[in-house]
Design a protein that fits this description.
The protein has 160 residues and is of the alpha+beta class. Helix content is 26%, strand content 21%. The chain is built from 4 helices and 6 strands; from the N terminus they run ββαβββαααβ. The relative contact order is 0.16.
Length: 160
């Protein structure tokens, strides 16, 4: 499903990643563990398409080309949950979760938000502003938002 070949990256001259390669089959989970600054977040950003590598990344048979070839970085079937969560703090929990869901079918959107609120155990906080939540609660809202459109691949940076 996901295959990396010779993925390398450097922010300046010092390489952060050197010749990373692996294959991840459908239904498998992979954890990348290492000390701070070793390149875990950089690897996730490369897979998602935010950073360019001269290596090759494939999703099935399709090569993912990254930001040098895509006007809008990222892939629609992949969701990347960054360490900072990227929530809209003035909005409610429910509005944050529904941020990327279509407004064309409001009842369907409302139902999906309700389902996701239940998944992350935040139903009672649906109307609370995101800025008033704890860090752990904000992380659960961000996870629900990432799951909203049912991605095929979920990349979690610092999920714990």
């Amino acid at each position: 499903m996901l295959k990396l070949k010779n993925v390398s990256f450097a922010y300046a001259e010092e390489p952060v990643l050197k010749n990373i390669g692996f294959t991840l089959e459908k239904g498998e989970n992979l954890s990348v563990i290492g000390e701070s600054g070793c390149g875990k977040s950089t690897l996730l950003k490369i897979i998602y398409g935010l950073l360019h590598t001269d290596g090759k990344i494939f999703w099935g048979e399709k090569e993912l080309l990254g930001p040098n070839f895509n006007l809008v970085p990222g892939e629609p079937f992949i969701k990347y949950l960054a360490q900072d969560f990227d929530l809209m703090l003035p909005l409610s929990v429910a509005d944050n979760i529904g941020k990327y869901l279509s407004n064309q079918y409001p009842q369907k959107k409302k139902k999906r938000i309700k389902e996701l609120l239940e998944v992350v155990e935040m139903t009672e906080l649906a109307d609370k502003k995101a800025k008033l939540l704890s860090g752990g609660q904000q992380q659960r809202v961000a996870l629900a938002r990432a799951l909203a459109n049912e991605p095929e691949l979920l990349l979690l940076d610092e999920p714990f």
